[in-house]
Amino acid sequence: METKQEPILEVKNLSIQFGGLKAVDDVNFKVNRGEIVSIIGPNGAGKTTVFNMLTGVYQPTNGQIFFKGEEIQGKTPQNIVKAGMARTFQNIRLFCDMRVIQNVLLGMHTNTDYNFFDLVFHTPKYRKLEREKQQKAVDILKFLDLDRYLHDYPTNLPYGDQRKVEIARAIATDAQLLLLDEPAAGMNPEESEELLSFIRSLVTKGFTIVLIEHDMNLVMNISDRIYVIDHGRKIAEGLPQEIATNKDVIVAYLGEEEEEDQLEEVEHA
Amino acid sequence: MILQQVFDGLTLGIVYALIAVGYSLVFGVLRLVNFAHGATYAFGAHIAMVVVVSTNFGLFWAIIISVIMTGLMTMFMDRIALRPLRAKKSKGISALITTIGCSYIIQNALMIVFGSRSKWFPKIFDYGNFQIGNVLVKSTQVGIITVSVVLLLLLTFIVQKTKIGLAMRAVQQNAKAASLMGIDVNRVISFTFFLGGASAAVAGSLISGYYQIVNPQMGFIAGLKAFSAAVLGGIGILHGAVFGGLVVGLAESFAAFYIGGGYRDAVAFIILIVVLIFRPNGLFGKKVIEKV
Amino acid sequence: MKHNNAKKNLLDTKPKKIAALVVMVALVLYLPKSGLLSPYLVRILTMISLYSMLSLSLNLLTGFTGLVSIGHAGFCAVGGYTSALMWQYLGLPWLVTAICGMIMAGVVGLMLAAPTSRLSGSYLTIATLGFGEIVKMIALNWQSFTGGPLGVNHIERPEFFGITLTTFNGGFFYLSIILTALVTLFVYRIVNSKMGRAFMAIRDDSLAATMMGVDVTAYKMKSFVISAAIAGLGGAFYVHFVRFLDPNTFNFDISIIIISIVILGGTGSIPGSFLGAALLISFPEILRFASEYRFIIYGLILVLMMRFKPEGILGGHSHRPFRLMKGVESYGN
Amino acid sequence: MKKRIVLVALLSLLICGFAFANGSSETQKPVKIAVVGPLTGDFAEYGMGFKNAAVLRAKQINEAGGVLGGRQIEIVDFDDKNSGEEAASIAERIAGNKDIVGVVGHFASGVSMAAAPTYEEVGVPEISPSASHPDYSGMGKYIFRNNSLIDVEANETLNIASKVFKAKRVAVLAVKTDWGVTTADILINTLAKDHPELEIVGYEEILDGLTDFSSTITKLRSYKPDTIIVCAMYNILGPFANQYKDIDSKINLIGFSNAYSEQLIKLAQEDGNGIALPAIFFHESPEAKVRSFVDNYKKDYNGKIPSSLTAQAYDSLGMFAQAIEEAGSADRKAIKEQLYKIEYDGVAGVTYFDEIGDAYKTFNWLMIEDGKFTLIDKSKL
């Protein structure tokens, strides 16, 4: 995979403080186009908080976020999605009383620009755009092999497929950068195996992925680069092999004593 | 003349506080606005009226009976209508709509049983009036204020100092954790409903004794004003409800005096909307951050 | 769910659907003229169609956007008063005053929505209740303009091409059917468009909606404005129908009837509002003895529906396939 | 599929319900007269009074041989719940039923005016025993009123104030309903001029259904009135008397004929003593007609005492019977024409209609003394 060197996303000394607590403290990282970058760290390290700052849910106390060269920290979530960055959630947040296809169609909200007048009088512009978007939604579901659930409601789908619908919804926003928040959480081994090949297929389609994940097996095999965050601070970055042997990472995850066992387990993952 | 308005306003306010406390108790424990609370207040007043008129029990015993009956009624309502929803983990809106339904059932049942006409209610604490400076003080007013203050202190004592009070505060903080610690959450919730119903019954009897009139529709407007008071003080907080009640009572009696009789109800609603917009958590409430 | 292949059912074939529609329209138009129905029954059908329109407007706000409003009669009052007073002071024809009533109600809907759309659940509901009472209070106290308790009477009936509509010539019946049909088409198109999906997304998970680029506050306000405008139109129709209006015409009971219809019929279901209106408006007429208990029955409906079928009779997940636009290839699904 | 079955079941219930409600048409030929008023809700007492009075009068007429040579009068009652909407719906039902030739009813002015256009349009003579809004009977040729005009009755209250109480400073309290506000306006702006001996010192308005009068009382007392005219019904006058006399027991209170009912005594208890009000009908007047009406009414309706509005409903039914007899036909139009020529000597005094359908009445003055209404002897003043 050739990776053009100009970064699609660059974060400079990003930090945020809730009252006295420094949830994220001076984090720097960058993501290049077409890469799969993982952010790992123990629970409560501040990973999801980073995601929330990237997507405009929280305003960082300081630091900049450059997306495709443009500063986006402080922008509203709507503008960030429109700019081309979409996310999924740690615990699935699909619209359970809307059909699967409607969920995906909702993803296209920012890029379906017919106005109130068009939709009331079914003007040609409305008909053309609506048909286009519905076709695109069906195609996305087909691509993700979810089109059989087209008319169905998300709550009736198996867990793994619900995850994929959430990703389908993120893709529908025409985003180039997908932020996946623990997609493998709650999956059994072959489901996460299938997810692995699925994410790889996304990259071949031209998406760039940033991943938060605890499933070390998935992370070590899929990531191009890994950043490790602990107590809100970046403690390590680099290729999967480097991270596996990095002292600080092991200490952060497992604490002092059992240093040795951690090493063998990683080698033959 | 101002002092007279202040005193009248305080009497009104202390009773609104007594009703508002009911809202805060239930909201604290369940995060639910009990819309049927206004109708409960009217229910309590009617029970007291029936007991006083049809039997020779004094007003004191009538109120005691009304407190017990109303408390049981609210517990029954919680048991039949609200507990199944909690068990079913249904959406918050369902519980709110259920209480709206209950308030309509109670109010219209009162109208059918007691007829919709206003009925007489004996004067409470009727020992004549006396003058302090140019402020005319009725014995009824003094009686109402003392009873209300005693009841509010009793409620605060129960919540702060007793075992069940501790359980209530635990459920208020985190119902799931409380149940893990062996607290029977449903029992605590129904006890809270009992307290809410009881305080509403007393408030209903006191107000009817003060104005010597009882009417099935009295609960609707009074309930709404008491809710404004509870929100103003910070819903879920007892002393907030008391403070809010006094403010709404004073505002209403000043508006009626200076602007005109037609505006007395409007004042409470305007306070409600203004508070909801600028400080939804009220004066004593704290900001709640929604975790992603 | 067993729904992976689109079931072909009776009504789906094109010609059958048109035929059913034509028969239905002919029946509805012929009905009042046929003398089969006494003016009293024509009046009931007119009220059913009016309440269908009102509950459709609340369904858009509560059923589709998830904002529970129990002060909806306040918007009817704004629409009704605007229309009645414009007739009284300016003598304008019904069509003009009704549209102004609709716009005025929409504007008031915006004024209520702007500050309160940040509120959550029960706070917003209680704020709408407060709003309903404030509208009544203003109508009562602004005596010089609204006539206060005297209200407005002898309100002129609408007149189209020289015919004055009355219940006897079925005029009001046709007008209410036309208005309800227009509103239904309007709501149907909104619900099946990008805006409708945004409303439903806000109802199901407003945070996820925000993350997908929906400006939640703006859309909540749009939902309020549209819903209020339709309610205002309903109010404008009603005052010219009853020819009388005072602060008590649109009181809290009307809001409760409307929300009971929405809850009974089915939140988030357009046919549900029609079924709810038909049931709740006709049952006090059919069971005369029950009419005294009707508000207890409305209360019971709210409690029992929440307990056993919160999504309502016709609400909930529908088994019919999602209607894709013509020409969209669905790979056999 | 399950949902479709439910739908079909519910709709069929609806259809058969309509058939049932449509009612069967009778073929006998009794003369049917409708009585309409609030049989439920806040003013149920007045609606029931109308119905009882009309049924009693019809029974007496039928026992005396009915009308038009033996045809019986049949009363058909409707409950309009004191709502304009319900009233308009009932008006259409009555207008559509050819057998009903006259209507005694609608209670409140607003409600009557919501129904009047339909009666006028179809041509059904309607006599309201209680509507007092000035432009009510002007709504049509078929619209009559067997109740005193507001300005006539309001003038009586001023006479009571000056003659009975020798009042100097009079305050006016009005409930914010169409009747209350109109009465107060006429009292203050038109009638006060021709009573130089009195001075209207203040005016206050209160919401209907209010129970807390403390701030209104404080304001009224600031005007230092010796007499207060209360334009409101007993549900306001009663508690107001309690709360005001609690502070100033010497105040004179004057009510209106619609507050004249036992409910007022029940609500005001001992504070009711001293309240005066004008009334067209007095249930303890020595007149034979009144005595027999009150005794029959108490016999039939377990001891209830008829109020002045009930008496007027009783007379209204009597007027219809007399008009039908004199017109010699039970045709709606003929009855209407006859009503303009009628001179009816009823329990509520001699009544005749003017050209727009308003009735002129003579008033008695009553005062509550130790829990009972007593007649004020005007000659001794």
Total strands of chain A: 10
So, CATH architecture of the largest domain in chain D? 3-Layer(aba) Sandwich
Question: How many individual domains of chain D?
Answer: 2
Biggest sheet of chain D, strands in spatial order? 2-1-3-4-5
> pLDDT below 50 for ≥5 consecutive residues: which ranges of chain A?
none
Tell me, rounded to a whole number, the average pLDDT of chain A. 85
Looking at this structure, what is the CATH superfamily of the largest domain in chain D? Response regulator
Rounded to the nearest angstrom, the radius of gyration of chain D is: 22 Å
Number of helices of chain D: 12
Query: What summary fits the major beta sheet of chain A?
Result: 6 strands, mixed
- Distance between the ends of chain A: 23 Å
Give a concise summary.
The complex is a heterotetramer of chains A (269), B (292), C (333) and D (381). With 269 residues, chain A is an alpha/beta fold.
Give a verbal description of the structure:
The complex is a heterotetramer of chains A (269), B (292), C (333) and D (381). Chain A is of the alpha/beta class and 269 residues long. Chain A contains eleven helices and ten strands. The radius of gyration of chain A is 20 Å and the shape is globular. By secondary structure, chain B is mainly alpha-helical. Chain C is built from twelve helices and four strands, in the order H-H-H-H-H-H-E-E-E-H-H-H-E-H-H-H. Chain D has two domains: 199 residues, Rossmann fold (3-Layer(aba) Sandwich), CATH 3.40.50.2300; 129 residues, 3-Layer(aba) Sandwich (Rossmann fold). In chain D, the strands form four sheets. In chain D, strands 2-1-3-4-5 form a five-stranded parallel β-sheet. In chain D, strands 7-6-8-9 form a four-stranded parallel β-sheet, with helices on both faces. In chain D, 56% of the residues are buried. About 2% of the residues of chain D have low confidence. Classes of the chains: A alpha/beta (269), B mainly alpha (292), C mainly alpha (333), D alpha/beta (381). Chains in contact: A-B, A-C, B-C, B-D, C-D.
